[in-house]
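Practice problem. Given the sequence and the SMILES for NAP, write out the predicted structure.
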Amino acid sequence: MISPKTVWITGASTGIGAELVRSYTRMGCRVAASARSADKLHALEAGGAGSVHPYPVDVTDAAAIMDTVAAIEADLGPIDLAVLNAGAYTPTPVKDFTAEVVKATMDVNVLGVSNALAALMPRMVERRSGHLALMSSVAGYRGLPMAAAYSASKAAVIAMGQSLKAELDGLGVKIQVICPGFVKTPLTAQNEFPMPYLMEVEDAAQRIVEGLKSDSFEIAFPKRFAWQLKTMQRLPDGVFFPLIKKATGH
Ligand SMILES: NC(=O)c1ccc[n+]([C@@H]2O[C@H](COP(=O)([O-])OP(=O)(O)OC[C@H]3O[C@@H](n4cnc5c(N)ncnc54)[C@H](OP(=O)(O)O)[C@@H]3O)[C@@H](O)[C@H]2O)c1
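Answer key:
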């Protein structure tokens, strides 16, 4: 497949997003990089012949996202690929469960994605071309212990992608969801538990780039961990709950 020319990556200031900026610039793309931290976006360097263009924005601000998409397309041309990757994770054990934490998580992980879709999808549909990649997680397959807000938000992203896919297929726009396992980034640095199959961010970005070239709707990795969680998704509750308790202690 030919590399996309113009790529928009949200959550590009650190972690997976910043690594994707490096990957796509190595492939010669013009990459529009968004996050709230303008300083970090300006410090990003192209990994190769491509170029990086910072567009600081808060994905929870629907009007600002509309303006950002318009500005990127005016400056760099039509967005061929958007990786809607901005995300937030706050553990939610029962003792720390608040509606504010759930709202803050949903605002970034779900509404952040839908704000971007609302801004960009009509443009892609009109052009009958474009590629949308929504960042979810294997944590969206089943409600995981201590992660009520995060699991719920990532399940919502998978469902959103699934709902849109059939229609977008007929409109010439490709949509995929990305479901990584644990990746070593600032987001997971707060986890105090041992993270199975923890991956380096370079490895994760490589798998995402490869997955986005494929026709699979869902890009899930590492394979063994994703398969285990997928299997858990299909288990009856009476089997799943004791199993997850054994695996996590909760
Ligand atoms: N690491 C993992 O194990 C893992 C596994 C599965 C899925 N994921 C998902 O992968 C994505 C990237 O996570 P990561 O691990 O790379 O974490 P990260 O390094 O913490 O990156 C999160 C990115 O999102 C941006 N962001 C957060 N809130 C934002 C907002 N309101 N508006 C705009 N940008 C915002 C952050 O930048 P600013 O703070 O500068 O805004 C940052 O660039 C997330 O959606 C995460 O849920 C991660």
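Check your answer against the key. The helical segments are 15-26, 38-43, 62-76, 99-127, 148-170, 201-213, 223-234, 237-248.
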